[in-house]
Amino acid sequence: MENNSFEKIISFAKRRGFVFQSSDIYGGIGGFYDFGPLGIELRNNIKNSWWNYMVRQRDNVFGLDSSIIMNPNVWKASGHTETFSDPLSECKKCHKRFRTDHLKENNCPECKGELMESRNFNLMFRTFVGPVEDSASMAYLRPETAQGIFVNYRNILNTQRTKIPFGIAQVGKAFRNEITPGNFIFRLREFEQMEMEYFVEPGKEDEALEYWVEQRMNWYVDILGIKRENLRARKQEKDELAHYSKGCFDIEYNFPVGWSEIEGIASRGDFDLSQHQKFSGEDLNYFDDQTKEKYLPYVVEPSCGLDRTFLAVLCDAFTEVEGGRTTTTESNKEKEFLLKLNSNIAPIKVAVLPLVKNKEEITNKAKEVYNMLKKNFSCQYDETGAIGRRYRRQDEIGTPFAVTIDFDSIINDDVTLRNRDTMEQQRVKISDLTSIINEN
Ligand code: ATP
After folding, report:
1. Which tens digits make up the pLDDT trace of 181-198?
2. Minimal CA–CA distance to 317: which of 227, 377, 254, 248?
């Protein structure tokens, strides 16, 4: 895919109400985006499918929702206060700022001016807790959800009476004051993570790392429906690894701008727990009943970005059909867009369309069908415009099924069920609709 297809996806996402620039009417704010009616449905479906796959379907993974602002000592222990920074270069002439490691040349990419000496810039957003703004009340918006998990490790272990190996999973907002946000929602300053810390006995971490890389790849392919050839698990080189890391894989997607990370799966040893043990003075050791040994567990961490996954899903599903697919006169030869989303994550699962809008028997029947289906599925009722145009509107937002109600429906209690990808239409009984849609 090329850059211009990225532009198309961005404008499509805005036009159809998936993603808007934050504070749009004020000219926006760099690195922040809002999600519209279809975007929020798609996001929720991705989150729910992650939660189902990572937590509900497993007996030894537990959920958590920790606070965004935590005791600042958490960030001292994790190393974020000291080292969570990117190198920043500022132009002496135009005063624009850039990430030094993203620069291709030694001068300003905007005006070719001379750059000041690079310095480290901490990415954490600061705020103050309580009415006094001084260093004692300073706190941070979390730059990752993971540390909320580590500080709750003992709470979960004790209250759930679980044994190693086990995992703790969390979905939530994270904030990073990125120097150069960009590529639409790829690099944001406010984003959402879906993270899990998996605690294992030391020595079992390689096996766990391999297991989770495979599991996570399967989620993208089998559950989200992303094409396998557009995904790869890239092993990080030694010089890319954090000093405590025992190995890391990046799951990358082949975006129109090139292969880029959507998830990191890291083997973190006992770095985090040992740091929190040291800084809090609390004993975080695990006691093995059988061997009577005490140890700090090792950790494998699959850390997925919701916004980047959302973007990968959109890029993967976005299909442009030159000349059009439908044969109605008005759409003939027009370019059509089709969003081939897996039916389990499509924002709208079924569209209900009365063939005509000026026959009350038909619209009444259509509303009856709509009221029945919306109990189980996210549905949209649409009676405006020619039927071909309405099909195309639904194809464009990835709705896998369209149900059309016509004159025969009133007599026979049946409807036409249209499949988005094959455009096949079958006649089905209204009473069978729910189960047929459920099976697909
Ligand atoms: P990058 O190298 O791209 O800055 P990272 O290696 O710092 O990312 P991690 O700290 O491993 O990222 O975070 C885990 C996941 O969180 C990433 O794979 C990504 O999906 C998501 N993520 C991290 N930073 C951002 C951001 N600024 N905007 C959107 N998502 C992000």
Report:
1. 999 999 999 999 999 999
2. 227
Structural domain count, the chain: 2
Both 305 and 356 in one domain: the answer is no
Q: What angle do CA 407, 411, 412 make, to 5 degrees?
A: 105
Residue 255 CB contacts under 8 Å (≥ 6 apart), including other chains: 1, 6, 183, 186, 311, 312, 315
Instruction: Reduce the DSSP state of residue 232 to 3 states and report it.
Output: strand
Query: Residues of the chain with pLDDT > 70: what percent?
Result: 97
Helix H or strand E segment including 182: none
Index of the ligand 1 atom closest to the CA of residue 306? 20
- What domain range includes position 390? 348-438
Dist. CA 2 → ligand 1 center (Å) = 23
Same domain, 364 and 217: no
Cβ-contact 102, 183 below 8 angstroms: no
Asked whether residue 166 is domain-assigned, the answer is: yes
Q: Is the pLDDT of residue 1 over 50?
A: no
pLDDT digit string (tens) for 343-380?
999 999 999 999 999 999 999 999 999 999 999 999 99
- Residue 98 is assigned to a structural domain of this protein: no
Question: Rounded to two decimals, what is the model's pTM?
Answer: 0.95
Separation CA 126–CA 160 (nearest Å)? 34
Site to substitute for ligand 1 among 303, 309, 310, 313, most atoms within 8 A of C-beta: 303
Tell me what pLDDT residue 330 has: 54
Ligand 1 midpoint to CA 351 (Å):
36
Q: Which residues contact 104 (CB under 8 A, 6 or more apart)?
A: none
What residue owns the CA closest to ligand 1's atom 7? 264
Residues 98-122 pLDDT 10s = 999 989 888 999 999 999 999 999 9
pLDDT band (50, 70, 90) for residue 91: very high
Q: Which residues, judged by CB distance below 6 Å to any ligand atom, belong to the binding site of ligand 1?
A: 144, 176, 178, 187-188, 191, 193, 261-264, 303, 305, 307-308
Cα(366) to centroid(ligand 1), Å: 45
DSSP state of 340: -
Strand 414-419 to 401-405 pairing: antiparallel
Give the per-residue pLDDT at 325.
Answer: 73
Sequence length of the chain is 440
User: 341 to each of 14, 109, 396, 401, how far by Cα in Å?
Assistant: 17, 38, 10, 12
What is the 363 CA–ligand 1 centroid distance (Å)? 48
Give the integer Cα–Cα distance in Å for 72 and 77: 9
